[in-house]
Design goal:
3-stranded antiparallel sheet, alpha+beta, 2 domains, 6 strands
Length: about 140
């Protein structure tokens, strides 16, 4: 079997309490945008890449541009100008179609072309159901302009 390379890009995030953690992205551009536009407060660039080699390489936990955009919208990022800048930079042709479905008993998934791009906890219903899907679809419709 052929050995494959998976490149994981990262940006170090400042937690504000003296600690930091890496955010993992699927593209270098996304990691750099996160570092340069979301007030990380570092005096020098804190981005880079990790190359992993193996067989049948994939990583569904890497942040994609669709997932990052949804995180900015759904998790209350306050600077709407930055959200618009992100949308303009990463979706110049317009946003993809987002769909919502149940992943498991506690999580909804937001999908683009059958690929999960964001997980959302089943709140306030505490268990996934069709009512929760409708609620999340309404939130998306209201926030995505």
């Amino acid at each position: 079997m052929k050995v494959e390379k998976l490149i994981i890009y990262y940006s170090i995030e400042d937690c504000g309490d003296g600690s930091a953690y890496p955010r993992l992205f699927d593209t270098e551009e996304l990691a750099e945008w996160n570092q340069n536009n979301l007030d990380q407060g570092w005096g020098e660039p804190c981005t880079g890449e990790i190359v992993v080699e193996g067989k049948n390489m994939s990583c569904s936990e890497l942040q994609t541009k669709e997932g990052f955009y949804l995180e900015l919208l759904l998790e209350g990022y306050e600077n709407q100008e930055e959200v618009q800048k992100f949308k303009d930079a990463f979706f110049p042709e317009g946003l993809p179609k987002f769909t919502v479905d149940i992943i498991d008993s506690l999580h909804y998934g937001i999908f683009v072309e059958g690929r999960i791009v964001h997980k959302s906890f089943a709140y306030p219903e505490k268990k996934t159901n069709n009512k929760g899907i409708k609620r999340l679809e309404k939130i998306l419709k209201r926030k995505i302009k």
